[in-house]
Write the structure tokens for this entry.
Amino acid sequence: MHAWPASEVPALPGQGRDLRIHDTATGTLVTLSPGPVARLYVCGITPYDATHMGHAATYNAFDLVQRVWLDTKRQVHYVQNVTDIDDPLLERAQRDDVDWTALAEKETALFREDMTALRMLPPRQYIGAVEAIPGIVPLVERLRDLGAAYELEGDIYFSVEADPHFGKVSNLDAAAMRLLSAERGGDPDRPGKKNPLDPMLWMAARPGEPSWDGASLGRGRPGWHIECVAIALDHLGMGFDVQGGGSDLAFPHHEMGASHAQVLTGEFPMAKAYVHAGMVALHGEKMSKSKGNLVFVSQLRRDGVDPAAIRLSLLAHHYRSDWEWTDQVLQDALDRVDRWRAAVSRPDGPPADALVEEIRDALANDLDAPAALAAVDRWVALQQEQGGTDTGAPGVVSRAVDALLGVAL
């Protein structure tokens, strides 16, 4: 599976700072100091309803992570998956009376278009769950051989008790885990499971549903969590720098994936930091496919909204915060992009070197994009009020906003 084209990242003078970011597992800010190649895995979409503003906010956060790392003169090895086989996709295809593969291809193509328009830097590997199945099957077999998996009516489950570190990503108690498991694709009430929290690794073939050869596992399809584990281990290995996604993935998805990987390799932790973006609401409720309260990037683009304004609306909120999409949020972003473009179109302005360092400092401090935007606003206001004599400053500002914030002026 291919990703989307990369937008050029302008080179800036000087060098950025190491990223200090909130780690869900420890509940603290940690300073990441990757080697020459920083490793990032971000969980991708289930392609049946893309790309809504919740998706966009999440991928914007991890685009900033990449930009901070690139500004430190590192390379970035970024991997993202596509869950192109899962119950929600099959259910949507059945509801709409369309082929599930056609639906997945259509929504994935739309996601690529949205990411390109928003200037999100693409992953080096963009891997679908279906294409990862040949690598998933041996991992499930190995977990079974290690005594960390068991069969129940043809399905294969992972035993969470096989990992002594289980629970150290989300730090939730058993009762909270059980509730979230039921809400987020698990089956804690299924009779016969050793532990209600045990997640499925391999689902035996069901009548009328797609299935693949699972060698000794029999025909079936993979569970949700093992998919990302197989892709991450294959391309990044253990101990990569950041595992990312929305806050609703901390449990069960990232918790379970970490346990799978830790049992498979005998190493801990799977990732050095677990980083989670907040949720976006509409009319007082979290945007979700089940509620149908979604604002789509593609619809905004069809309505003629400048993608730079869409991106600025995301950047106006700290990535970890939960926030609400409103018409005013978009209008504020439209006004801001107009002010910024007018400023960088002028022949001169106040010196901008200090502004570049302010943006760098803000982003290195737990991706504080609102502080970075406020710094640019101050430079723009100063230019409007007092003018300036530095003929290179508008170009410096334009390049810095593009390179570090992903906004083309």
In short: The mean pLDDT is 96. The chain has two domains: 20-297, 307-405.
